Amino acid sequence: MTVKDVLKSASNMLSRQDVCAYLDGANQGGQDTLPTIGVMTSLLNLVVSELAGTFIPMVKCEEIDATDGKIYFTALTERCVKILSLRDQKGVEINYVHTPEYMQLSAQKVVVEYEYIPPNYGLEDQIGYDQNQVSVGTLAYGLCAEYSISKGCFDEAVMWHDRYVQSVCEHRKLKNGVVKKRSFV
């Protein structure tokens, strides 16, 4: 899913047909259209960062060559938060020593699985979640809640936030799970 997909979905939910039409390439939009798309993109980055940092982490697997028995964290594609596993090409777990700058290990080629901080996404960028982890609708609900707050529509924000929380809980499939409540006062 792309940022544009989420923005289209949220724009439909918020009845912003000018934004939907612009994103589809149907028209140039009004004078409020482009600033709205910019705000929505920023707010979506906020929603994705909060979600990745709290409830549903972004995970990536990469095959990396070790240099002198070291893999520097800067060699990873994304900004690593936590190493989940290091495996050789046969899938056998590898022991390693973790330092602030690199991982010391004995293998040459490894598959690193790690959690990462999402970057700031642009309009055409792919979001680091797949449809099974988080749906377009879930992110759209979160975006609608944040957008409604930014416009001062607090009753709508509460409604969208409740839908967002329910959708996140569905994706996490936890029983007795609670998502942090928000105060709109």
Structure, described:
- With 185 residues, the chain is an alpha+beta fold.
- Helices cover 41% and strands 19% of the residues.
- It has helices spanning 3-13, 17-24, 33-54, 136-150, 154-172, and strands at 58-65, 70-72, 79-87, 96-98, 102-105, 109-117.
- α1 runs antiparallel to α2.
- The longest helix is centred in the N-terminal third of the chain and has 22 residues, at 33-54.
- It is elongated, with a radius of gyration of 20 Å.
- The model has no long low-confidence stretch (mean pLDDT 91).
Termini gap: 33 Å
Q: What is the N-to-C succession of helices and strands?
A: HHHEEEEEEHH
Overall radius of gyration:
20 Å
Overall number of strands: 6
The number of helical runs is: 5
Proportion of helical residues: 40-55%
Strand order of the largest sheet: 1-6-3
Task: Supply the key terms.
single chain, 185 residues, alpha+beta, 6 strands, 19% strand
Give a short summary of the structure:
The protein is an alpha+beta fold and 185 residues long. The chain contains five helices and six strands, in the order αααββββββαα. It has helices spanning 3-13, 17-24, 33-54, 136-150, 154-172, and strands at 58-65, 70-72, 79-87, 96-98, 102-105, 109-117.
